[in-house]
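Troubleshooting log. The previous run stalled partway through. Resubmitting the same two chains, unchanged.
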Amino acid sequence: MELNGVADLPEVRPGDDIAALVADRVDLEPGDVLTVASTIVSKAEGRTADLEDYPVSGRAEEIAGRIESVAGEEKDPRFAQAVLEESAELLIDCPFLLAETRFGHIAPNAGIDRSNVPDHDILLLPRKPSESAERIRSGLAERGYDDVGVVVTDTCGRPFRHGQTGVAIGWAGLPASRDWRGEADRDGHELGVTVQSVIDELAAAANLVTGEGAGGTPAVVVRDWEFGDHEGSDELFRSVDDDLIRQALREWRVDA
Amino acid sequence: MELNGVADLPEVRPGDDIAALVADRVDLEPGDVLTVASTIVSKAEGRTADLEDYPVSGRAEEIAGRIESVAGEEKDPRFAQAVLEESAELLIDCPFLLAETRFGHIAPNAGIDRSNVPDHDILLLPRKPSESAERIRSGLAERGYDDVGVVVTDTCGRPFRHGQTGVAIGWAGLPASRDWRGEADRDGHELGVTVQSVIDELAAAANLVTGEGAGGTPAVVVRDWEFGDHEGSDELFRSVDDDLIRQALREWRVDA
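Second attempt completed without errors. Output:
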């Protein structure tokens, strides 16, 4: 398996066609997977905003005030308002905001980014990242690059472990995961609960090449990797019923 | 960045020298990272066991009984006992066991594996995976392969997202994470909380090559990846103080 960053991508602007920007710079082969950082997908889709666009609700005032009193950290209530508007559910509201976005991804601040935004205050995640992935995939096909998988990525922290890793938030042209159930291990035993989230692993691998910051390469081509002959699934985000941690968080609140 | 599985590794037995097995099969270069699945590290270290080795305590009886009554799933109390003995803390005790191992990794059943074990019932994780990684690294150096990073990996599910991914549980010769704080993004803004868990990303990338099951290649060489000129950190596992999810779980219990 080989990963190469797409070199010399320009600063992406609203309306830019990411498939065209990539296709102008690399030759793709059938079976390749292209990972694209959500930052540039969001920029192309015009998902920048300014804090003054968010008139503050009572709930946002309360959240910002509580974070300030508990964490001693100044929180702009307009930013809290932006997070609320991007969220289907707040899982944690203090001392930081952990939110489920409207498309199911769970991330601090609903994935809203305050760096990486020229001329605006904040960058929202793409509205429907799998649709974004599908558009990029079609755009590549129109340029003669058939059968390229596309994964839209974010970087995100997680419970239990320090640090962030690349994760997938949208995908097209390949299943989200490989299902090994029913297959045998080296000793002939049937494998138990073994569903491998290949798109998250592709996103994590790509993030090693992408990097952050000034030298970042927000698109990466993965070559010589195959999904292989396995069952696939497109479930990525757990529902509350499926997730004891989400259930525990519903019954829990930081004491003020 | 390029990843290649180490082909033709034999079934690993207690006392086997993993560094020798790998060094006999591939040429390594300074700066390469070798990922090794914990299954073969555990086998080399003789970490297999049988359920009859675990006389059942009252706590294990209670756990197995409660899982049976809540989840309707038969749970061998000797297996629960094995999990208890491998654990520093149980974070969830019903309807499944989520445990912190004695070296800090949080995993269902303390990472105990019931597949992949010829001639025994269960396979425990290595006792101190970073020491295992260091031994493999030294063993490679003795064979002339200097400056190879080693990451011992497991596959593990996670909150919020379906499926498992490769994660690191031990490492040597490279820091666990890259600290981008204080560096600037493409627009000159300082990056916020940005610590990248590179060893987890390496483990995830390697798991795409490793696969599970009969065709698995439990060791992978990562080439042409650089940690680069960044601050590093060796913190991987969060403590309770550092982890709101762990705090929430301490106050929560599934209703029987």
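Takeaways: Chain A touches chain B through 74 residues (CB under 8 Å). The radius of gyration of chain A is 20 Å.
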